[in-house]
Every structure is written in structure tokens, then in C-alpha cells.
Amino acid sequence: MENAQISLQSVDALTITILVDNLTDVFMPDEGPARRHPLTSPTAARHPAVTFEEGEVVEQLRGEHGFSALLTVTRGDRSRRVLFDTGVSPDGLVSNMRMLDLVPGDVEAIVCSHGHFDHTAGLDGFIRAVGRANIPVLIHPEFWTRRRLTLPGREPWELPTTSRSALQGAGFEIVEDRQPSFLLDGSLLVTGEIDRTTDFEIGFPLQEALRATSWQPDPLVLDDQGLVLDVRDRGLVVLTGCGHAGIVNTVRHARRLTGQDRIYAIIGGFHLSGPLFEPQIPAVCAAFTDFAPDLIVATHCTGWRAIHRIASAFPNAFVPSCVGTRLEL
User: How many structural domains is the chain composed of?
Assistant: First the structure.
């Protein structure tokens, strides 16, 4: 796929708040641009718990196998908010937003990185929190594809699929595009379909898609897309959900689209967990050396072996993630 170079407007400041991630850690300290949610909050809800003398326990942030991030994008004196993915449970996203004193109704648009349910199920709770949404949801056309996983030694498992009619019925404006597109007056770039240029990033070989009346191999996950922003005087921020397209492919794609080489931050899921994907780790680290980012924040599906290797290889750039982390860029 060939793309003409496009003009991405710089932003003055960017805050990325991790709303859903696999890990919650109330003792994780502030580090670099990362600010953590405090152990206790005066606005935290309390739940009845008969096993305690006080009869209640304080609500905590939820960790779950999924991803969601809130982007607060500032240009001049105006800040705007976009939600990237929504997590794996109907209520986890909204519960964590409430804990972080964030208002779902402030969200101006939602971008879904791809159609897997661990990135989309929180739309249910979001709809219940805001009522009729009346905001755009940006997706790739393959987002609606019925899919299943073919795990060795097990029966195929069909993944839950988001309902188009349910989203439209909630008032969302569904925006489908394979090509790159902009939000926020040209300051937030949705990559669209990502060029696959590396010879080591293998997509998702375990996946099949229902095409017409039969299940067919679907390793490419063509709907996988990321977000790109240019923070003034610092460089590109590349944000992925799972990175099924390959985190290296994604960053290279962002460079080609924008014509900018300087990478400030690489943030999100890199999908390097498990025996199928861990062999990619050395090549990914080699590519990161070339990218030379100031900040690496690996989330969700990156995997503990990859996280340890990246943290060791890039000690000055790596910052661990947990639910409630606020990255002030």
C-alpha cells in the first residue's frame, strides 16, 4: 500500500491516561513523565464488606486483560479528549474513569484499534454512562469480522463480535476507513491499515475469519490500526492497542505517513507474549535502537519476557505501565 505524505499538526501538550491494562499496582512510583494514581482517593466509593470491622472496603482501580487509554490533546488554550479502545469488560472502563475523576461525557470521539473484544467490550458501560452518545467511532471496515481462535489441542473458540446495530442504536456515528484519517483539526492521525514491511512480525497466526460460509485463515488482522501525534519540539508519539500489525511496522508506517523520523514515544500493546511471538523480541529491540525513542511504555499484551528485555535494553526510556498511569508528554 502506498501512501502520500500527509501534514500532521503539532500539539502543545498530550496526556495519555491508561484506563484499562492488565496490571494494577498501587505502589508503583511516579517515574519520568508518568504520574500514578494515589493509593487512596477521597472520591473513591466504598463497598459493603462484612468481613471488616468497619463493614466496608474502599474501591480500587481494576486491572483486566484489555486496553483503553484516554488522550487529552492540547493546542493553544484548548484541550480535547479522545478515547482509544475500551477494555474487555462492560464496566471496567467506566469504573476506572470514575475512580480517576474522569467524565465519560467529555469524550469527543472513540477510536477502536481493532475488533477484538478485549478492546471493545467497555463500549457497553460507556453507552450506559453517557446515554445517547452522538459521537464518532472510528474503525477499519474489517472491525466487524466474525473471528475465532484455533488453539492447538482445543476446539476453535469464536470471539465475541461487536454489534453494528447496537452501536448505531446508541447514537454513535460509525466512521469506517482503510485509509489514514484525522481527528481534532488534523492533530491526531489514525493510521488506517498498516503496511506490513518487516519479515519477522507474523500477525496473529492462530486466527480465522468467517468469509461467506467458511472459516478461513486470517493472520493479518487488517483492521489493526494505531494513533500518531506530533508533540511540538519532541517528535512523534505512536500509540497501539495490540500491535497485531507489528509494533515495528506501525512505527515505520507512522514515519512514512508523516515524513518525520524523530520518535518521541512508543506506547501500547506490542503483542510479544507467548512462544509464537517471543522469538520476535530481539528484532523488535534492534528496531527500537534505530527508532531511539525517549519513552517506551509497554502495556497489555506485550508479555513479561518482552517487557523485561525492553526494560533492560532501554533503561533510560522504559517506563512501566499500570492502570491509572497518567503520561504527561
Answer: 1
4 assigned to some structural domain: no
Proportion of the chain in helix, strand, coil states, percent, rounded to 5: 20, 30, 50
Q: Which positions ≥6 away from 153 have C-beta within 8 Å?
A: none
Residue 5 falls inside a structural domain: no
Domain annotation covers residue 3: no
Global confidence as pTM: 0.95
Q: Which residues contact 22 (CB under 8 A, 6 or more apart)?
A: 63, 64, 65, 66, 299, 300, 301
Residues in the chain: 329
Tally of helices (H runs) and strands (E runs) in the chain: 6, 21
- pLDDT at position 316, please? 97
Residue 151: what residue type? L
Cα(217)–Cα(211) distance, integer angstroms: 10
Per-residue pLDDT reduced to its tens digit, 20-68:
999 999 999 999 999 999 877 666 778 788 898 888 888 889 999 999 9
For residues 15 and 197, what is the distance between their CA atoms, to the nearest angstrom?
A: 30
